[in-house]
Fold these 2 entries.
Entry 1:
Amino acid sequence: MIYDEPKFLPGGDRYVLVEFGNEMNLELNFTAQGLATKIEEQKTKGIVETAPCFASMLVHYEPNDISFDDVVKELKALIADLGPTDNIELSSRIFYFETLYLDPWTKECIDDYSAKITEKEYDPDFVARINGLEDRHQLVRVHSGTEYWVASLGFWPGLPFLQPLDPRSKITAPKYNPPRTWTPQGAIGMGGSASSIYPVQTPGGYQLFGRTPVPIWDTEKRFDAFGGEIVLFRPGDRLKYVPCTLEEYEHTEARIKDGTYVYNMVDYQKFSVRNYKSWVKTINADDRF
Amino acid sequence: MLEIIKPGLETSIQDYPGRIGYWNQGFPPSGAMDNWSFRLANLLVGNDVGAPGLEAQYMGPTIKFGADAVIALTGADMMSKLDGEAVPNWESIPVKAGQTLVMGPAIKGARGYLAVAGGIDAPHWLGSASTFHKASVGGLDGHAIQAGQALPVKTGIGGTPGRRVKEANRPELSTTKEWIVEAVRGPNDDWIDEAAHKQFADTKWKLSARSDRTGYRLEGPDWTFTEKATNKLPENGDFPSNILDQGYPLGAINLGGQTPIILVNDGPSMGGFICPYTVPSVGFWKLGQAKPNEHLVFDIVSVDEAQSRRRAMDAQCSENSLENA
């Protein structure tokens, strides 16, 4: 549900968790991001930083500058000032990533897990089956059919938690149990309703079905799209996976290696919650791609 | 320049308060775990409280000095010796070029701190020199220090030898293998039932050997839950302690299945488990000094009380705490 009034939950001496609801509903994330933007604009005294998540937002404050009660008071005022969610407009960049679906590297990783840890069905077949899709090829069409919304980043620095904006691309998948000991960098997969990209080679638990050569993590800061940061994405960015061939994948990979790769990114759009919601109303989620 | 002869067991460059402002990109603050001892070490040698220094855990490093320096050791007692002579903790001491400092095993506490006048000259990554080695960020090269490395020292601050932290202003390291650590209820305290709350406060939790700067695993009894945890929407996950992914406060006592894990300086910024309690800032120095297999007992305090204790701790980290030896 979406709460009538957000809950303000204390986290020790310097955090407040603002909970807007308890369901997976993009509207709650739009509210969290709208509030985060507002706090940044107003430079509210004593608020150090915010971290929006699916249905909540963590606020880090400096207790020497502001009390818990006053943080809550400030947040309530800012939320009132935000008005209805429909009015929220968020700056939103969109990125296009070359993606090789059903790639050999995640297959090798899945095979390795099957051989060494516990036998399992090939992830793309498994995810297709439990979501009632024809086969792995329809999974690719469905997964690549939508823009994804960067709801938040975390767990690992730069790891985006992505939600499909198009209801026709909504799918779910359980996480690995037990988790994998390794996942290739750039692997694309999903767990629960969230999709993600592995920024570096790490352990993991998402079902895997593709890989992108495009870095989302670069300690050498070689690409302008990062804006001087180590991490590519910000909450409120959008991402579209563009299926490519192995040859295209390797071409992109080579350009990344020699530093000549140009990120395909567009940065002039505002994401209007009202426009988005009225578009969603026209879509039949059962019309799978 | 500090030449590393032996690195010790994961000795890393840290500063205070660490890498702040990047939680929404998933970066933890890192930084010194016992920041009370760390700040005092810097004050002793005339640095700003936050200047980069070394954090040694369990077993300290062996370091040869390339130039004259003023240093201070604080935190865990690592039976440190300079050219074979015992050197005191909590005091600024002069070191001559060519001398060798051997920091040994931590016999009291777990983490020892070394500050050098001027501070270690490490590059800043996102505003901090602190090492976050899981993501290869910070320090000299993203990792704990290695044998053969030379750590540059910033010049400009000479430091005054013979300064000492007054006895009363030092953190009191436990000698009983038991630590009383503050905890504040929330953010998800209504997911566990009253019996679990009582049990949390009454239990001596054993600090697991599988603990590091990311998380402190605690061993103890199983938890019991309220209706909120057992009767919820499927997107919250399968286990009672699963919740829709949320941001984690630093210090959160995060319930992964039945195992509580305190998320400390290098911890994750978000995830899908409930956090019924949070260790406030004032409890962190104790976590930094507790060793695996020692016990933690939680002192449940209000937000106000946690904040006032933090102010009291911060007041200790000032010039007023120093005297001439």
Entry 2:
Amino acid sequence: MKKSTFIGTVAAATLAAGFAAAGTLDEVKAKGFLQCGVTTGLVGFAAADANGNWDGFDVAVCRAVAAAVLGDPQAVKFTPTTGKTRFTALASGEIDLLARNTTWTFSRDVDLKFTFVGVNYYDGQGFMVPKALGVSSAKDLDTATVCIQTGTTTELNLADFFRSNNISYEPVPIETNAEAQAQYLAGACDVYTTDASGLAATRATFENPGDHVVLPEIISKEPLGPLVRHGDDQWADIARWTLNALITAEELGITSANIKEAAMSAGDNPEINRLLGTEGNLGEMLGLSADWAKNAIAAGGNYGEIFERNIGEKTAIGISRGLNAQWTNGGLLYSPPFR
Amino acid sequence: MSVITDPPQEGFRISQLLYDTRYRSMTIQIVALIGFLLAIGWLINNTLVNLAALGKPLGFGFLWEPAGYDINQRLIEYNSQMTNARAALVGVLNTLLVAVLGCITATILGVLIGVLRLSKNWLVSRLMTVYIEGFRNVPVLLWILMAMAIFIEVFPQPRDFRGEDPAATMKIFESVAITNRGVYLPGPIFNAGSGIVIAAFIASLAAIFFFGKWAKARQEQTGQILPTFWIKLAILIVPSLLIFFIMGKPIDLEIPAIKGFNFAGGIYMRNSLIALWLALSLYTAAFIAETVRSGIMAVSKGQSEAAAALGLRPGRIMNLVILPQALRVIIPPMISQYLNLTKNSSLAIAVGYMDITGTLGGITLNQTGREMECLIILMGIYLVISLTISTIMNWYNERVKLQER
């Protein structure tokens, strides 16, 4: 960990200036695959199966971008990153895109020089406790031992929350989700805190998920989204509009089932036509082929399909759409128009 | 008969720098030095230019901004509103704590194991060999993780101490709680009048020192040996104890008790500290044992035989003849073992111990994004700690090394 930080730093210092100028799109096209940073393993968001195939909600973003750029959703190489190594990996050019439930904050955007291309999951920090503890509110957690993933915004939110409520606690910083899980299950900490979606995903992997409850308090806003380096606007646009394409596709009712048909020839809805490239030249403006959005959507379906398949109510994780519903359904998902 | 003629007096010529053997090596060294400095300068300049191009010019202003995060083990006052520099200081103290504890334990264990490995008892010496080879040849990180894993899985949770018929009970007269979050020990509470007891204790320490000097001088003059150990022990305990009772027991023991989710009161040693301390000590002790063994074996057999012939008992032979000579072989490699232990303590983050690598090189680095600055400071801090340790140990080495006359 220490070593990778160091190497990353050196690499950032010596290489990054060159990378920014070269154009990430040309580079990705030249090497033939997208290098995408994901978590070290969070079921539903990004996890490798027994065969080493990555799957999940964040992974789907990587695959959609790869499909839009290269026409092949499998042309992705995944770099597992921890909360601590992710930014160095992106800044140094080790990865082209970071899709690792990363919170969009002012200082990361402005001071760390990253461009967040949108929000693919509106989240908030929550607490999980064993039912046996008999706790019903986070405000009852005085003197509790709390496991936190180090290097994340949750660390700062936690300090603020306990401070403003004048509650004492004992933080236990932990490097990865798996270690935190081990400590939590052994009772070395009373509480595990991270983004509510992460808690749901972690709980789903427990032997007895029913023995643990997520407390009602959500103590922060955590808009999670993919991000790229500052300084390459074309690449940022590609990532941004690929994500928007997935969201718009759901809004317009384009699914992986009907996309082939819809993309055959221009239909009655001009926005669908522009999106799928049967009309206009949006792909060309981005520096991509005309069917870029079609490929991106065909890769894993629209936003709603990706959500339901990986983390939706029918999966073990069982997250409802909530804030992440389309704006037409009372949620926050609102893509700018394709025009 | 030989005639000595003065060599012809010639002025210095530039070509001599290269062709005259008196100057050549110096010329080469100066050229190499200039080249080396240029290379370093280029590296630094390159880093600065590229950092500036990335929009991240070097700056240390972040050190004085609020850190924003909490640290569990604090030897000095700290809260999340204090600066990053303060958080770094908390980390430095945690590093020093585990390093000092580790060095002490590793030395005691190492000396014991090293001597036992030379034991004539077959079983004992073989067991020690197994210990040494086992610990030396497995990376210390694995020992740290293993110690932590055992801690977490084996010991009960604080919750188990609750209720009518608790699953776990406190040890040693109900005063020590061993949980998987750490060990809770009884801690002293200093009431009014405790200052006098402490003063008495410090006075006893001074008395022991002067008594030792006096006993030594007396032995050199008269040849009589006093049972100094027992007398020193008596000086250490008796006066402090007397004053403690005369003052009406001003120092109380606070027994930890379950309060909320955890034990409260007393001294709390976190599982991360214990796991790290234990693993580092056991690991380094294996190396120190080998150093001690080599030191003792370096003293020639004739020395102990000569001492025995003079009628010295085995204990005295070890103390007066063997160890003083062995120490000068033992100490120099011992310095590097202490340095290793201190540097290995940077693996603390593996078990969530908030040392300097965890605070400054971990959370601060991550939350501020100042990799270069944090790593430079971090390296500087380790350098200072290491150089201080070697200075102290070298000074000690000067004192014990063989006086050649």
